[in-house]
Amino acid sequence: MALSTSSIGKKFIQSISGAFLILFLLLHATINFFSVIDSFTGKYGAVAVDEKLFSAGDGLFKLGCDFMSTPFISIMVPILALGFLIHILYGCWLTWRNMKARGGFKRYEVASKAAADSWSAKNMFILGIVIFGFIAFHLTHFWAKMQLPEMFGIGTYEDNPYVLLNTVFSKWWVLVLYIVWFGALFLHLTHGFWSMFQTVGWSGQTWMKRLKVIGVVVASIICLAFAAVAVNAFLQANALI
Q: Which pLDDT tens digit goes with each residue over 97-154?
């Protein structure tokens, strides 16, 4: 069976790359959520303005960012990000192939009436486009200010992630756009999670019900963590807490 030509093979590639997406998001959300914990301990504001405390690593978020720079994580993150990119590009390619084969635009193809009744299932490609667009928006805020200057010497390097969070989320409209993004991500993940397991054979009625619940829980954890980080940074930047 050729993975790139058979229907099952194509879905398998999309499912495996989707698993990389979930792992990447879980890791990313966990590290970022440390900034919220730092707010409750009083270290967020202090570390954001005190270079000595920041340099000493006084703050979970700072330690988390340092952990992301360790050799093992530095190797794993690009691999996870590559899986993320493959998932997006392969999803676009599959949608284009399906549109071409059917002679026009049809919504995301689903295998059951239960799945067809889901708005997320019928709009996975649209949700994917929204998510991809906001990823580009997100990269200009963080990756372009930290990893890009550090790795390639392009742009101005910002070594204090607390300051960068405050700078990005100081504007209310940026916060709103990110919340919309997290909502689209939630809808995409809730369908994609159980669909991923269905593709690899876990399609029994009992397990499917469980996987759908687990999918909602996982998507909620990821998106609520990201939303909490954004809202907290907005409040910190505007001295509202």
A: 766 666 555 544 444 444 444 666 677 777 777 887 888 888 888 878 877 777 777 7
Residue 47 to residue 104: CA distance in whole angstroms: 55
pLDDT in tens, 42-95: 888 777 777 777 766 678 898 888 887 777 777 776 777 777 777 777 777 777
In the chain, which ranges are continuous DSSP H helix? Answer: 7-40, 43-49, 51-55, 60-68, 71-102, 113-116, 119-122, 124-141, 147-152, 161-168, 172-199, 205-237
Q: Is 3 helix (H, G, I), strand (E, B) or coil?
A: coil
- Taking alpha carbons only, the member of 56, 4, 64 closest to residue 36 is 64
196 in Cβ contact with 15 (< 8 Å):
yes
Helix (H) or strand (E) holding 240: none
CB 32 within 8 Å of CB 226: yes
Q: Which domain holds residue 232?
A: 7-237
Whether 1 maps to a domain, the answer reads no
Number of domains in the chain: 1
CB distance 199 to 84 below 8 Å: no
* Tens of pLDDT, residues 182-231: 999 998 888 878 777 776 666 667 777 888 888 899 999 999 999 999 99
**CB-CB contact of 130 with 184 (8 Å):** yes
233 in a domain, yes or no? Answer: yes
How far, rounded to the nearest angstrom, does the alpha carbon of residue 134 sit from its chain's CA centroid? 10
pTM for this prediction: 0.80
